[in-house]
């Protein structure tokens, strides 16, 4: 079976594994350095709390979230020069990942080098290596986007119950901040963590408007923007806050129900996309097992490898198009 593969497939695999392990090691060292620096800064803040006057003021200011993009000092000015780095930091925060922007960039560059070097050793073609490097560089970004999507979905599922809990707390006569504390203690994750962040920012003196807008930035969800807008408008013009929260909760539940119905109606389209994406790979593998000599031409001839690359690209494009067709927003 392995005789039909290129003779240099083993060196290419070893290059990929070595480069991958090197990337993971570099990312681990960066994150370890961040953790050590974070602990050191925290100890300095605790020492500053015991001081009086200007030292105490500085320690209070240091409790707020830092705006650094990376813990590597010499790399910080380079990252600050690109406005897109702020969006990257926000994306990492939305995905609830402890990575810094420097760690993400290290993983992206490292994965690109791993894929590119292994394909270059395998084929000796620089064009194929560049294409593989482009594919590898997308990996960390796709992982971050997937983590963000899963976290948003989990938040969306528990958000209506959190709004109901907040409304019941207000009806019982508690203040809005107290209701936020109740949600931060009794709601499910990740709703609990986000509302705890808002409540703790209030304790440290951050205005409510900035805390709620920060919540809307961290959770990229229409329901959150509706919630924040309703709260801020109610604080300006007045009104029955508990009744407003009940209507928001009802609206979110109705949207959630419609989304589930749409997923049921589009299930056949999604399964079609999965089938069309997997079926050529399965059929190719079966034909390879039954007639290795017949299929080996695709791996040994340059035009065969080109056809394989083109087929994979077309498969990915077709799968993305089908997903976009069945992805109906409410």
Q: What would your notes on this structure say?
A:
This protein is mainly alpha-helical and 330 residues long. The protein is built from 15 helices and no strands. It has helices at 9-49, 54-62, 76-80, 84-94, 101-123, 126-171, 176-186, 191-203, 208-218, 222-237, 241-265, 267-290, 292-295, 297-300, 302-326. The protein is elongated, with a radius of gyration of 26 Å. Residues 52-72 have low confidence and may be disordered.
Count helical runs.
15
Tell me, rounded to a whole number, the average pLDDT. Answer: 75
Strand-pairing-aware structural class: mainly alpha
Q: How many DSSP-defined strands?
A: 0
**How does the overall form come out from the CA principal axes?**
elongated
Quaternary form: single chain
The description of the largest β-sheet is: none
The H-and-E topology, N to C, reads as HHHHHHHHHHHHHHH
Distance between the termini: 50 Å
Low-confidence stretches: 52-72
Give helix % range: over 70%
- Report the portion of residues in β strands: under 5%
Radius of gyration: 26 Å
Tag the structure with descriptive keywords.
330 residues; mainly alpha; 15 helices
Give the topology, please.
Layout: H1 9-49, H2 54-62, H3 76-80, H4 84-94, H5 101-123, H6 126-171, H7 176-186, H8 191-203, H9 208-218, H10 222-237, H11 241-265, H12 267-290, H13 292-295, H14 297-300, H15 302-326
Helix pairs in contact: 1-2, 1-5, 5-6, 6-7, 6-11, 7-8, 8-9, 9-10, 10-11, 12-15
Summarize the structure.
The protein is mostly helical. It is 81% helix and 0% strand.
């Amino acid at each position: 079976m392995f005789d039909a593969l290129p003779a240099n497939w083993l060196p290419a695999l070893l290059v990929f594994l070595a480069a991958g392990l090197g990337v993971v090691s570099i990312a681990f060292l960066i994150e370890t350095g961040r953790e050590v620096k974070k602990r050191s800064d925290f100890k300095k803040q605790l020492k500053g709390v015991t001081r009086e006057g200007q030292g105490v003021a500085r320690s209070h200011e240091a409790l707020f979230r830092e705006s650094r993009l990376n813990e590597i000092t010499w790399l910080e000015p380079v990252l600050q020069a690109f406005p897109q780095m702020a969006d990257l930091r926000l994306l990492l925060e939305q995905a609830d990942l402890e990575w810094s922007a420097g760690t993400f960039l290290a993983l992206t560059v490292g994965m690109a080098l791993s894929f590119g070097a292994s394909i270059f050793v395998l084929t000796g073609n620089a064009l194929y290596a560049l294409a593989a490097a482009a594919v590898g560089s997308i990996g960390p970004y796709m992982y971050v986007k997937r983590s963000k999507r899963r976290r948003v979905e989990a938040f969306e599922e528990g958000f209506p119950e959190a709004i109901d809990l907040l409304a019941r707390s207000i009806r019982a006569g508690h203040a809005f901040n107290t209701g936020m504390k109740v949600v931060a203690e009794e709601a499910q994750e990740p709703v609990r963590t986000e509302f705890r962040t808002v409540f703790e920012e209030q304790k440290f003196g951050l205005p409510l408007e900035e805390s709620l807008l920060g919540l809307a930035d961290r959770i990229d969800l229409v329901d959150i923007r509706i919630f924040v807008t309703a709260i801020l408008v109610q604080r300006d013009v007045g009104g029955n806050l508990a009744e407003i929260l009940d209507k928001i909760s009802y609206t979110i539940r109705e949207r959630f129900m419609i989304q589930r119905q749409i997923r049921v109606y589009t299930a056949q389209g999604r399964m079609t996309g999965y089938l069309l994406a997997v079926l050529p790979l399965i059929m190719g593998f079966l034909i390879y097992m039954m007639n290795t000599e017949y299929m080996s031409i695709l791996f040994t001839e340059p035009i065969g490898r080109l056809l394989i690359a083109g087929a994979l690209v077309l498969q990915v494009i077709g799968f993305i198009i089908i997903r976009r067709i069945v992805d109906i927003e409410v």
